[in-house]
Input
Amino acid sequence: MHKAVNDCVIIGGGASGLFAACYLKYLDPYCDICIVEKMPRVGKKLLLTGSGRCNISNARISAKDYHTDDEDKLSAVLKSFDVNETVQFYENNLGIVLTRKGDLYYPLTLRSATVLDSLRFYIEERGVEFILEDPAVRVASSVSGYLVQLKSGSTVSSSNILIATGGRSYPKTGSEGDAIELANKFLKSEDIIPYAPALVPLTSDKPGIKNLAGIRFNGSISIISDDHEHARSEGEILFAKDGGLTGIAVLDVSDTVLRLLDKGDKPYASLNLIGKSSGDVLMMLYIRRQLFPNRTVCDAFSGIIHRVLLEGVLRDCNIDPRAKVSSINDAGLTKISNVLCGWSISLSGAKGFEDAQVSSGGIKLGCLTDNMEYKGSRGLYFAGEAVNVNGICGGYNLQWAWSSAVCAARGILDV
Ligand SMILES: Cc1cc2nc3c(=O)[nH]c(=O)nc-3n(C[C@H](O)[C@H](O)[C@H](O)COP(=O)(O)OP(=O)(O)OC[C@H]3O[C@@H](n4cnc5c(N)ncnc54)[C@H](O)[C@@H]3O)c2cc1C
Output
């Protein structure tokens, strides 16, 4: 039996929706809340985060590391419930012990299920109603505020609505970009940016790239277009199975690549395969030529880099991998070191929503108040990835989910 009129209906039981419910109950234990979730269980995507370990936040959160239409508002929302408050809330109210690996926060158990359980237990114990496996299909205004129509035909009434349906990435987890359709009746078309994949593996049509599948290295990637570096990231890079690039460093620059391709530019990736300067690498090559004069080029340098990668580099330098290393003159070594530190990989595009960790686009942040309420409709709130905010890898996107959820909760209770 549903409550006649709830104080808040939260559409979407993902990271932001569950956290908003917790915070609403924390601020007001008597608040009547109903969570409507499309899937049979809440938090399906949350369980996948951080490779099952849930990287919940980052000590270096800054609005500059996100893409959005309103950086000032983003900064205000992130500051109004920051990393320290997030950590304290998890530890003091939800009972989770967190651990830090560098700047990244994880639950001490290194299990995302610990995070999901802590949220679920907190709101279940406080009597939040769940409607599962019944997607919201329409939101309409009513005398008491809003009426949410569900796929089953039933309806739920509420004074406030929080749309926390996520973006469109990993649609199999239930996030299919429903926010725009659900709130369509209330939104102005200029307040919506269509969702697009972000933090997504890049595809390449470079000949022979499929032969590199499965090879990973620690280096850096620069995105170049019109002789200008548009983005750069360091860390693990992996050659993907079906030809292309993935790994955290690649995901972090993928948004820039998509934006350049959209503009009609032809960006390419320049990979530093060793993560060192070309001067240092040249010195490594000199030393090995001197140490192993009778080896082939490939054998002499195989202690520096994966030999399959080296063969690809040598091919691009027009140097036979089976030539004796002593036959390569200084100009040849310089050419090799330059390519090892800036190997050009043409980029043809990126994978789709199925492989994207987050999506860009959604409801523009600029059309929401600092409390995540839509400026044109009192009582209509948004949080999380449904909004046009997407960050780099490393806990940034979940921190956005937590901070935006708290701001919405404060707005709903007017505190
Ligand atoms: C593989 C993977 C790993 C990730 N790892 C990290 C990480 O370690 N750190 C990090 O910061 N970020 C990570 N992210 C990103 C992060 O998970 C998301 O940014 C975050 O979950 C977004 O939270 P949300 O509440 O906005 O949406 P979601 O968590 O996507 O939740 C939305 C919920 O709404 C429900 N829903 C949708 N439409 C309807 C409807 N019409 N009616 C009812 N319910 C509906 C969905 O079923 C879903 O449960 C990762 C993402 C992926 C895919």
